[in-house]
Design goal:
Elements: E1 23-29, H1 36-44, E2 59-66, E3 69-76, H2 85-98, E4 101-107, H3 111-127, E5 135-140, H4 152-161, E6 165-168, H5 177-196
Parallel strand pairs: 1-3, 1-4, 4-5, 5-6
Antiparallel strand pairs: 2-3
The structure holds guanosine-5'-diphosphate and magnesium ion.
Guanosine-5'-diphosphate binds near residues 37, 38 and 170.
């Protein structure tokens, strides 16, 4: 698999320690089929018709200007692998360790994916106990109104319980997707600023 990233994989979680440029790893978590890769492709600016050309790529780097300030995100769509099961376990453990921020995705049309999202949040909290990592819970496929199984209020309430941000998106309509990544940048900055004080 090709890795489109300058991120230093061996460094610890303090990616800001090296100087002026800030670079943060954002890991997408969630069940198969909820729309992780679709969201990552939009982040990377890959058109749906060209998605096949990028098959096998799963790490994307892009600099965003949010509130007149630049931040580079390395978005990792590495949670699911086509490899052996034992590799998958290793990759998933790794994903849980390396993120500076997390996007936990479920589909509003699939209640079991909503339940998985809660489990992932609990797992993450256990593994990264002492850290106050930014997490955004995402209810994707908001365009599929007639197949909705999870109400907006349920998503919002879940985010309150799990102390994270919440947004509903539609990768198909590109609705709220840029807001999602801008939101991650703002959450990262908030944590960063409070560390410096
Ligand atoms: P992943 O397994 O989490 O990476 O999910 P994918 O990004 O591969 O998406 C799974 C399927 O759901 C694909 O057929 C996508 O086209 C579709 N999909 C993803 N996001 C949306 C969305 O917001 N709305 C609708 N209607 N379909 C979506
Ligand atoms: Mg995928």
């Amino acid at each position: 698999k090709s890795i489109h990233s300058r991120a230093d994989w061996s460094s610890d979680s303090d990616s800001d320690s090296s100087g002026s440029e800030s670079l943060y790893r954002v890991v997408l978590l969630g069940d198969h089929g909820v729309g992780k890769s679709s969201l990552a492709n939009i982040f990377a600016g890959i058109q749906e018709k060209d998605a096949h050309k990028h098959a096998g790529e799963d790490i994307y780097e892009k600099t965003l200007t949010v509130d007149e300030e630049e931040t580079t995100l390395v978005v990792m769509d590495t949670w699911e692998t086509e490899k052996q099961e034992e590799d998958e376990k290793w990759v998933q453990d790794y994903c849980m360790q390396v993120g500076n921020a997390y996007i936990i995705v479920y589909s509003i049309t699939d209640r079991s994916s909503f339940e998985s999202a809660s489990e992932l949040r609990i797992q993450l909290r256990r593994i990264r106990q002492a850290e106050n990592i930014p997490i955004i819970l995402v209810g994707n496929k908001s365009d599929l109104v007639r197949s909705r199984e999870v109400a907006v209020e349920e998503g919002r309430a879940c985010a309150v319980v799990f102390d994270c941000k919440f947004i509903e998106t539609s990768a198909s309509l590109h609705h709220n997707v840029h807001e999602l990544f801008e939101g991650i940048v703002r959450q990262i900055r908030l944590r960063q600023d409070s560390k410096e004080i």
